[in-house]
TrEMBL record:
Record keywords, A-Z: Amino-acid biosynthesis, Histidine biosynthesis, Hydrolase, Methionine biosynthesis, Multifunctional enzyme, NADP, One-carbon metabolism, Oxidoreductase, Purine biosynthesis
Residues the entry annotates as binding NADP(+): 167-169, 233
Lineage, uppermost ranks: Bacteria, Bacillati, Bacillota, Bacilli, Bacillales
Family the entry assigns: Belongs to the tetrahydrofolate dehydrogenase/cyclohydrolase family.
Organism annotation: Priestia taiwanensis
GO biological process, one term: L-histidine biosynthetic process
SUPFAM superfamilies xrefs: Aminoacid dehydrogenase-like, N-terminal domain (SSF53223), NAD(P)-binding Rossmann-fold domains (SSF51735)
Record text on subunit structure and interactions: Homodimer.
All residue ranges annotated as the Tetrahydrofolate dehydrogenase/cyclohydrolase NAD(P)-binding domain in the record: 141-282
Pathway(s) of this molecule: One-carbon metabolism; tetrahydrofolate interconversion
Name this polypeptide is given: Bifunctional protein FolD
Matching HAMAP family: THF_DHG_CYH (MF_01576)
EC number: 1.5.1.5, 3.5.4.9
UniProt gene name: folD
One GO CC annotation: cytosol
Length: 287
């Protein structure tokens, strides 16, 4: 039996970053613009700090400017919103990202909405989400955007394909389905209340799994020859990382599959870099 081809997020991300590095160089040399990303980190959560450090390192890798603003866990909502307002007015800052999750006393949606849509490089602002829904050019949510790029990198035809998304989060599930709809796919969403999910997943030409449950999807849920995109990152009791899909099962039945780790993860930060460079270009174009 022929095993599935692995879609390496590391490889796709490396190619994309090389291209972005050249774009940054040209922007700096021809326009005097250095794309700048500012990340606000509230509190000292190890996972959040790890993500922020990775973003900072990735910016340096392609020649972008980046800054990390660290605020105490006890910072007031008003103080955080004031900091965002200041960054909105700073012309050297092209992208603003507030690392989630935030402490319970701060309204996340209020914070997301406070970021200028033109600087919302996470792609979460309601205006950017609305533009995505109506297929207008905008800054797209990074993980869903990265997933589409990974599928396209293999020359997989999306038009007319049945895409089944398991998960309906605002960060991945909902927007990734919309992006595939924008690419002329037929999209079905599954979630915790879906009846007979297996019947739907077995129809999927492209199956995207984003539920955060280790090894949730096994062989009997996978259509022969399907493309499997595994968004989940779960730590087993042994300490080993795994996805939401039983990887060995996907290897035997699918045509393409993303690994965990090294699949969707590297693409998320890469598309954040892409969005920041795009935001800087938009300033140049007067968008």
């Amino acid at each position: 039996m022929v095993k599935a081809e692995i879609i390496s997020g590391k490889e796709v991300a490396a190619e994309k970053r090389a291209s972005l590095k050249e774009e940054v160089r040209v922007l700096q040399e021809t326009e005097g613009i250095i794309p700048g990303l500012t990340v606000i980190l509230v509190g000292d959560h190890p996972a959040s700090r790890s993500y922020v450090t990775a973003k900072h390192k990735a910016c340096a890798e392609i020649g972008m400017h980046s800054e990390i603003i660290e605020l105490e866990e006890s910072v007031s909502e008003a103080a955080l919103l004031a900091e965002i307002s200041r960054l909105n007015e700073d012309d050297t800052v092209h992208g603003i990202l507030v690392q989630l999750p935030l402490p319970g006393h701060i309204d996340e949606q209020k914070v997301i909405t406070a970021i200028s849509p033109e600087k919302d490089v996470d792609g979460f602002h309601p205006i950017n989400i609305g533009k995505m829904m109506t297929n207008q050019e905008t800054l797209l949510p990074c993980t869903p955007f990265g997933i589409v790029e990974m599928v396209k990198s293999k020359g997989i035809d999306i038009k007319g394909k049945h895409v089944v998304v398991i998960g309906r989060s605002n960060i991945v599930g909902k927007p990734v389905g919309q992006l595939f709809l924008n690419e002329d796919a037929t999209v079905t969403y599954c979630h915790s209340r879906t009846v007979n999910m297996q019947q739907l997943t077995l129809q999927a030409d492209i199956l995207i799994v984003a539920v955060g449950r280790a090894n949730f999807i096994s062989a009997e849920y996978i259509k022969e020859g399907a493309v499997i995109i595994d968004v989940g990152v779960n730590r087993l009791p042994s300490g080993k990382l795994c996805g939401d899909v039983v990887f060995e099962d996907a290897l035997q039945k699918a045509s393409y599959v993303t690994p965990v780790p090294g699949g969707v993860g590297p693409m998320t930060i890469t598309m954040l870099l892409h969005n920041t460079v795009q935001a800087a270009k938009n300033v140049r174009k007067g968008v």
